[in-house]
Design a protein that fits this description.
Helix content of chain B: 25-40%
Low-confidence stretches of chain B: none
CATH architecture of the largest domain in chain B: 3-Layer(aba) Sandwich
Strand order of the largest sheet of chain B: 6-7-8-3-9-10
Number of strands of chain A: 28
CATH class of the largest domain in chain B: Alpha Beta
Strand content of chain A: 15-25%
Oligomer: heterodimer
Structural class of chain B: alpha/beta
CATH class of one domain in chain A: Alpha Beta
Strand content of chain B: 15-25%
Helix content of chain A: 25-40%
Radius of gyration of chain B: 19 Å
Structural class of chain A: alpha/beta
Order of helices and strands of chain B: EEEHEEHEHHHHEHEHEEHHH
Chain lengths: 663, 279
């Protein structure tokens, strides 16, 4: 294992031959009183020390043993990020088991599929909402394997009286009894753990179908954490706010693989609605978030700047201009001249630092984006305000991280270079291949898919098309099967065009069609209700619902201008010629996008076939029938007429960068 | 580990559930020639959600105002019991004194301090439990500081219960109407009341807000056991959540009983639907 990461030259390589529970025990012994976990409850950050954290894991692990959990078995965990989530995972691993995280917003069918597939007998659910989902499945006998549901937020569950339902603390009490009867048993279990035991089953994002479960070992995860930290060191005192789903590989990486090796504390926000202010209170040193988080931060700034007085706006624009010039030089690793440095000092003081402060990013040393491509302009924005944002490229199957930007070598249109210990190769068909100690051992109970993804000599077939540029940086085009060819023969990536469109703060999602038989490119666009709503308010435009707003001629005009601007940056053959503003947002509950907000092309093509036909037919509008499901479960049919907007003869508005950002 | 159950007792009464707690006996209140209440006798039991209903002008709010001391009835007695052995006569007692005895209320029109934050408004609910000394309060040291920290602790529990942590620092005036109503309920709860009087907690709300509010009222009642007297016009809500219902009409209490009993009562039907329809 350690050979693969020899490039890092790190002295602490021994960790990668351990397991998570062994590392936890080590932390608890060496730093018993330091904070391991922090949770904001009752308005106050309440800390749990490493020793108390360790104690909680042990009690729960023995409780699971008392309930009959066997080594090698997976437990399901369903809920938002809370200390109990982390404790449950480490408890299962202490017994030589695995954890299987589920996205808390998953609908019942998804939950049933994943739990059954993973052969889960014990499910840890957060609260009434999650328990209700499981009870619904239980009652309709779709959870044949599950034996126990364990919950940890009893609010609203006081009246539930079901034999298979159990409280987290009750399991821990059983654990105490077990410990009294079997002293020393758990220590032997933990010591028997090996780094090539499977630690987690991680759901793959599943843009192509039902999610698969990737088996990742302790060694996989720890070596990846070690490799990343060999270029971007993290220190024990660094703050980290855990708010992205722990079912996602990126969060697993930082919250377990990095946190346990380095020993920094995880902070859990009070509630999803207070996440922003909690983030600001903790002031994290490191963050790893998918593009949607960065995009929403940008639109937050855009809205706030728009609402500010002229003096503040002028000041910010001036400072932003300086920041942009400064960042252009520093991202290449060069040092700007003394004049610009002094100017930047001032700009940072009056304009940029306050913005970082509002976003809670002042103390941030490094930030990563991953999971999906981030538009170069969004990237540029964060560097201009002084946030060292870097791209990570990887997949669940390689623990999420394989290629990254190094400090001082950031290019906004690439994903960087392989991290130490990772080999990369471009296959003849343009597919990116990766090999490292972090490559997974296979899909759970799916030999066939494993065979397709893994070559016998250990190379992982990513399924992404890409190439390396003149600096050795990897450029990812798109999923290999999504790359399209226009009638004039040029290859293009719909995702690239979509990101151009999505760069407008008013566009939430864009799905581009074209290639093959289709004569030109068209797009299906959904508007961002917050920003377009604010815009409409300022333009004195009255509207009732999302559908109504999306079909306003003024909104079409607004979006048309943005599409025209995006078109100027695209080669002739890859310009969007016609588009439709969709009457609804794309929703993971409708399976149109995944839980990690990736578009499911197949579903879109099927569901909106009529609209796509209209985009290529000589019509000005298309009538669609939608089924609306109300909160009480009743449904209604509604007819909506959607306008098809043609881009022929529409000149792009004059371009200026900060106007493009609407700052 | 933690349990989300209450760390603080929010109930200010130590009576056993079902024991008579508030007794209004033959209460009469007149404004000049208008008889607002005419010999009303109602008994509210510990732990109940007791609804008071009736057509407009029937005297519902007057009755609540008599209990909380804003009006003084000309005749009759109102007695509050907070333990088996203590009885307080609420007639002719100042409202501030009644508040310290453990009666908390919300108003039909929201009576919050609009420019103060949610947290400050809720802390005000703790006012009756605070002791102030001028110097230590000014300097905010020693007892004053400890006191505020411990009061904040209880307030945070109420914030958690009502699911408003994101609003903690927001000025109340900037909140939606339904949320302001929730804050008002919170302020009343912060008093750790023996008896909670809610005057139309759901007036002017949409269905979703009403459902939320009903759930909070049920939660507070089920988990902390605070007796709640509630005036409400939405019959659906009243029938769903109340243990007992009293009906007032022109200052007279014409019926008291369970929701079902009351809705079958011919006098009640007559008061609501009028003479001819009832026939």
């Amino acid at each position: 294992m350690s050979d693969a990461i020899s490039g890092s030259g790190s002295p602490d390589m021994s960790y990668t031959s351990q397991t998570f529970p062994q590392l936890l025990a080590d932390r608890a012994q060496r730093y018993p009183d330091d904070d391991g976990l922090r949770e904001k409850r009752y308005g106050i950050w309440q800390a749990t020390s490493w020793s108390a954290y360790h104690r909680d894991v042990r009690r729960f692990a023995q409780g699971l043993a008392a309930l009959g959990m066997q080594p090698g078995e997976a437990i399901g965990i369903l809920g938002d990020n809370r200390p109990e989530w982390v404790i449950a995972e480490l408890a299962a691993q202490s017994l030589g088991g695995m954890s299987l995280g589920l996205y808390p917003e998953g609908v019942v069918e998804e939950v049933a599929h994943v739990l059954t597939y993973g052969g889960v007998r014990f499910v840890i659910a957060e609260d009434q909402e999650q328990v209700d989902k499981l009870i619904e499945l239980w009652d309709s006998e779709r959870l044949e394997i599950v034996e126990r549901i364990i919950y940890y937020d009893p609010r609203g569950l006081e009246q539930y009286d079901l034999p298979y339902l159990m409280e987290f603390t009750a399991v821990q009490k059983e654990g105490d009894a077990w410990e009294a009867e079997h002293p020393g048993w758990l220590d032997a279990q933990v010591a028997a753990g090996r780094s090539d035991d499977v630690a987690i089953l991680c759901t793959t994002s599943g843009t192509t179908g039902k999610p698969k479960l990737a088996m990742l070992t302790h060694g996989n995860l720890l070596s990846m954490g070690r490799s990343l930290m060999s270029i971007d060191p993290v220190e024990p005192g660094d703050g980290y706010v855990s708010f992205l789903p722990l079912a996602w590989i990126g969060e697993q990486m930082i919250a377990f693989a990095c946190a346990l090796q380095v020993g920094f504390a995880l902070s859990f926000p009070e509630d999803a609605s207070t996440m922003r202010s909690d983030l600001r209170e903790i002031g994290p040193r490191v963050m790893f978030s998918p593009p949607r988080i960065w995009e929403s931060m940008l639109s937050q700034v855009q809205v706030r700047v728009g609402d500010a007085g002229w003096l503040k706006r002028r000041t910010f624009r001036w400072g932003y201009g300086i920041g942009e010039r400064y960042a252009e030089i520093t991202v290449r690793g060069d040092t700007p001249g003394i004049g610009l440095r002094l100017l930047h000092r001032v700009a940072d003081w009056v304009a940029l630092r306050p913005v970082r402060d509002q976003l809670g990013l002042t103390r941030l040393r490094r930030a990563y984006t991953g999971g999906a491509p981030l538009g170069p302009d969004v990237f540029g924005f964060f560097h201009a305000i002084g946030v060292n944002l870097k791209q990570i490229y990887g997949q669940t199957e390689i623990c999420g991280i394989a290629v990254v930007h190094y400090d001082g070598d950031v290019k906004f249109n690439t994903v960087g270079v392989p991290i130490p210990g990772t080999e990369m190769r471009i296959a003849d068909n343009g597919e990116i291949l990766l090999r490292s100690a972090a490559v997974f051992v296979g899909y759970f109970r799916n030999e066939e898919a494993t065979g397709e993804a893994l070559e016998p000599d250990g190379w992982l077939k990513t399924g992404d098309a890409g190439y390396t540029d003149e600096d050795g940086h990897l450029v990812v085009i798109d999923r290999a099967k999504d790359v399209m060819t226009t009638p004039d023969g040029s290859r293009f990536s719909p995702a690239f065009v979509e990101n151009k469109l999505k760069f407008s703060q008013y566009v939430e999602e864009a799905v581009v069609f074209g290639g093959g038989e289709l004569p030109y490119l068209t797009a299906l666009i959904t508007i961002d209700i917050d920003t377009v709503g604010t815009w409409a308010e300022r333009a004195h435009l009255a509207y009732t619902t999302y559908t109504d707003l999306a079909q306003k001629p003024e909104v079409y005009e607004l979006i048309t201008a943005h599409v025209a601007r995006a078109n100027t940056d695209l080669p002739e053959g890859a310009r969007v010629r016609r588009f439709v503003l969709l009457h609804k947002q794309l929703d993971p509950d409708d399976e149109e996008i995944t839980r990690t907000r990736k578009v499911r092309r197949g579903v879109i093509n099927r569901r909106y076939a009529a609209i796509i036909d209209a985009l290529y037919a000589d019509v000005d509008d298309i009538e669609v029938t939608t089924t609306v499901t109300y909160q009480d479960g009743s449904t209604a049919q509604r007819h909506v007429t959607l306008r098809v907007q043609s881009m022929d003869g529409i000149a792009p508005p004059p371009l200026d960068r900060s106007a493009a950002l609407a700052l | 580990m933690r349990a989300r159950a209450y760390r603080h007792r929010l109930n200010g009464s130590s009576l056993e559930r079902g024991r008579p707690q508030l007794m209004a006996k033959d209460v009469s209140l007149t404004f000049g020639g208008v008889k607002a209440l005419d010999g009303v006798s109602i008994t509210v039991h510990q732990g109940d959600i007791h609804a008071v209903i009736g057509p407009n002008g029937a005297g519902k709010t007057s009755l609540l105002n008599c209990v909380s001391g804003l009006y003084h009835p000309q005749r009759g007695r109102i007695v509050l019991r907070t333990t088996e052995d203590t009885e307080h006569d609420l007639t002719r007692v100042r409202p501030s004194r009644i508040a310290t005895l453990g009666v908390a209320r919300s108003f039909q029109n929201i009576e919050l301090f609009k420019h103060m934050t949610v947290l400050e408004n809720l802390l005000l609910g703790r006012h009756v439990h605070m002791r102030h000394r001028l110097i230590s309060s000014l300097a905010w040291f020693g007892p004053a500081r400890r006191q505020e920290i411990s009061q904040r602790d209880l307030v945070e529990e109420v914030i958690d219960l009502l699911e408003i942590p994101a609003l903690r620092k927001r000025p109340v005036g900037s909140l939606a109407y339904g949320l302001q109503k929730r804050v008002e309920l919170g302020r009343a709860l912060c008093m750790q009341p023996a008896l909670l009087l809610l005057d139309e907690p759901m007036a002017g709300m949409n269905v979703e807000e009403k459902e939320d509010m009903a759930r909070f009222i049920l939660d507070v009642n089920a988990l902390s056991g605070v007796t709640t007297v509630l005036i409400e016009h939405d019959m659906g809500v009243v029938m769903d959540i109340s243990h007992r219902v009293s009906v007032l009409d022109f200052g007279l209490c014409i019926a008291t009983g369970s929701a079902d009993e009351v809705s079958q009562n011919p006098d009640v039907i007559k008061a609501y639907l009028g003479e001819t329809h009832a026939a």
